[in-house]
């Protein structure tokens, strides 16, 4: 396959919505009845655009919410739209783009993409994604911004093409590997009141697919983790497809490996069929690996078993991805650590809930059609008085998968060997097998298949957990609907929220409800004048959107929602360019705060400690963003958002 820049991100999105869950876990067939009132305001040019009428609601009604105090940004339908729009009184400026210098000695980025891979190793990676701000202790105006670089786009190369139809040139593969991973950059508020990068900071660091990392936790050093190039099973080169994030109470960054299966291939059909750790995750078995065909230049991505090689060659290399990777941004010399106690799947995020007694949970989605919501509960407690005691807290604990029952209650199903059917007779010889094949373990335990679980976010005071279920164009064919996933052919997604029993992050039961169904306004009409079908109608009180993905709470308890859909594909094109919105959890009002350039997804969100600066990522724009000259390469870019009067964002 040949991929040009225009079709590339659509192809990748299609990969993370494949359904490979073979289980018959029963979703419960109770349809919710959306009764929430929706705003519907008229729009322009609906018929001409062939769009749904409700989509153009550009409302700026008087606020019912004490939390949301900004004017709604209208939807954008211009096919050439190449800006970031924020409300009146705000500004958004490009802050950190693919190719910007990070490490000492990084050359200036060249607009013809002629930088080689050693240069890329020191420059910002591609496809900025999840992001967090880590303040220096006692310093409000200085911090480290740490962000993921999820994957790469073809404009990474001068040709603008990644050609998988022939063996890949090694120097291209190395550049792609160098552009994956994480950036750490120091930022500081200047005497001008604006935030700037500190270009010569000793904390500035790139982590990539070529950075050695330590394997830790229950699987470290086991046979299932050994490869021809790492016979000890303790050291992995790199992290990839880093999507969303988490932070620990002790101030480290958690980066989550999402669609790692797209980088591997197992060409042995008989082996593939019986190897759950490959097949249940959707590795390629014919042709090339789905992303980039690295195996044609770098043998460790060929996961076919070879009996004549130590440890079967690289058959276990895919076992070394799909983890949570802990990075201490304040220790630039420290190796990142892959924490295997978290279990292995296409991990979207690791959102922390910290109880008053120091016990905690990390919530994760597994973003594929019909996959599960998980939480990991460390065995130990956070000890604020003794920071060193927290260092390896993530190496022991319990992984759970969620079952959402129709009556609004829910169960956390422990993925523990010897419980919930996780025994040798069902293919789980040990707890290591359970963690390695967490998807299959959750199948067996009876978790509820969900409409592509993306980010989770935890309310800063109530610890209420919100999960974005982005969409699912397969539900209705293979899986019946259920209370938590109520729409067949669900193209717009929903946000679900739940409360742990007693507010305890370690509880094994919870109550849940749908916070909203995304989609067209109720009562909206199609271009032909008919009613919008029920599967495309939402329950949003306020501004419409599709396909929630990124979720984050600010310190005041506003829920920020970021969208990810193909803005040229029906019916999402009826929503225009991708956007970021803000919701009041109490009133459920939703208001649109940002619209991004054509082709982009908006993802990743961080704030300065005073809430007066916000960073958000514009991922894979297709026009020449952030330059608007029509010639420059589009570049994934972090934008800095501030209020012109210097106030708190959103307030
Ligand atoms: Fe990287 Fe599921 O988003
Ligand atoms: Ca995402
Ligand atoms: Ca997504
Ligand atoms: Ca993405």
From TrEMBL:
The organism encoding this protein is Ectopseudomonas guguanensis
Q: What's the protein name? A: Tat (Twin-arginine translocation) pathway signal sequence
Where on the tree of life does the source sit, at the highest rank? Bacteria
Q: SUPFAM superfamilies from the xrefs?
A: NHL repeat (SSF101898)
Cross-referenced InterPro entries: 6-blade_b-propeller_TolB-like, PhoX, TAT_signal
